[in-house]
Amino acid sequence: MESEPSIFDVILNQRACRQFRDDPVSDELLERCLRAATHAPSAENLQPWIFVVVREAQQRRALGELCSQAWERGGRAHSEDRLPAPLFRDVDAAAQSGFETAPVFIVVCGDSNVGLAQTLPSSVFPAAQNLLLAAAGCGLGTAMTTLATAFRNELMELLELPSHVLPLAVLPLGWPQRPLGPPKRIPFQEKTYRDRFSSPW
Amino acid sequence: MESEPSIFDVILNQRACRQFRDDPVSDELLERCLRAATHAPSAENLQPWIFVVVREAQQRRALGELCSQAWERGGRAHSEDRLPAPLFRDVDAAAQSGFETAPVFIVVCGDSNVGLAQTLPSSVFPAAQNLLLAAAGCGLGTAMTTLATAFRNELMELLELPSHVLPLAVLPLGWPQRPLGPPKRIPFQEKTYRDRFSSPW
Fold first, then answer.
1. What is the DSSP letter of A153?
2. Which residue ranges make up each domain of chain A?
3. Can you give the pLDDT at residue B1?
4. Span B7-178: which CATH code?
5. DSSP class of residue B2?
6. Which of B4, B12, B126 is the closest to A36 by Cβ?
């Protein structure tokens, strides 16, 4: 078994991937990622997450269509003047096509019968982040997207979700079409304070 | 330099820590964790996170007091009959004392001037999870808590936060008082569906 990448290598090099090679992703790899997701912390350890792994071509197309509609009807206009041009082109091409090159989507949901509605985001997004990191640790590409949740009702209908299961994120997943460069981040020193907001780190 | 733990070792063994040894945590280690946090994905890569690292004794006591008040006034009654007895005893002891053994708290906030209010949770909780994983990768203990955010105004006043910086989680952090056992998790198969909710994994 080849050695696994270190936690810091994976975290510091994580980057959104939106274009994928035409290669399938095995159940075994997805299961590694899903197992990692379910080891996240959650309020009262209630584990109110639900994952819908979408590989069926027709479901993928319908899901991609919701992403692209959300993009056309508001996302693009909102982002066009705000994103750096290369990032905008990347996102625009992927969202417009409904992430059509992704062989898998994982829809991450919160179960409001299991966790309190107000604690779902703090309980479910850490699990989604574990999933993204585990995927990166396997060499897979992913991205955290929430665009499609703008069409919550349509998304719930498509996935046959009962009313207590709320979709919170849609993660396209697959083998990256090209190597991803290093992520661009503002230094933590500009985001960190000591004891109180009047005292920068 | 000793070898870093693998991404899967850290993720699969992450567990909440609520009792800490009386040893300080260096700036260097905190900076590793904060750097990891700032490498999380965020909507439009806007990075709307803010971290307030609280080590000053008086600020820690005041912050702990908010946690314990939130616990006394609602958290305990809500959790008492729902949590397994050993977990409840652990949480109760730690929350009642305001996590008094923690040498550091990191308050994770969202900046609504930088990110849209509705995308703050999806942009900030992945960063918080990165921080927890990085801490675990360094041998530190932490827990994701949101109790104190029930007293948002008091918390904002204590940390001198401007109105656009919203506290979303409070992470006590330090060296674990005792080794943490393996986390208890529901198998992912019970939380996962294939293509639609009518089709279990």
1. H
2. 7-177
3. 45
4. 3.40.109.10
5. P
6. B12
DSSP secondary structure string for all residues of A102-124: -SEEEEEEEETTTS-GGGHHHHH
For residue A128, the chain B residues in CB contact (below 8 A) are 126
Provide the whole-model pTM. 0.95
Per the CB < 8 Å rule, is B39 touching A162?
no
* Tens of pLDDT, residues B8-37: 999 999 999 999 999 999 999 999 999 999
ipTM: 0.94
∠ CA(A15), CA(A21), CA(A27), 5° rounding?
A: 85
Nearest to A50 by CA among A162, A181, A137, A149: A162
What backbone phi and psi angles, to 5 degrees, belong to A46? -80, -15
Mutation pick from B195, B196, B198, B199 vs chain A, by most beta carbons of A within 10 Å, is: B195
CB contacts of B17 in chain A (<8 Å) are none
What is the distance in angstroms between the Cα of A23 and the nearest Cα belonging to chain B? 19
Q: List the beta bridge partners of residue A145.
A: A170
Give the number of residues written for chain A: 201
A7-177, CATH topology level: NADH Oxidase (3.40.109)
Pairing type for strands B104-111 and B141-142 reads: unpaired
Whether A168 contacts B125, CB under 8 Å: no
Provide the pLDDT confidence category of residue A1 given band limits of 50, 70 and 90: very low
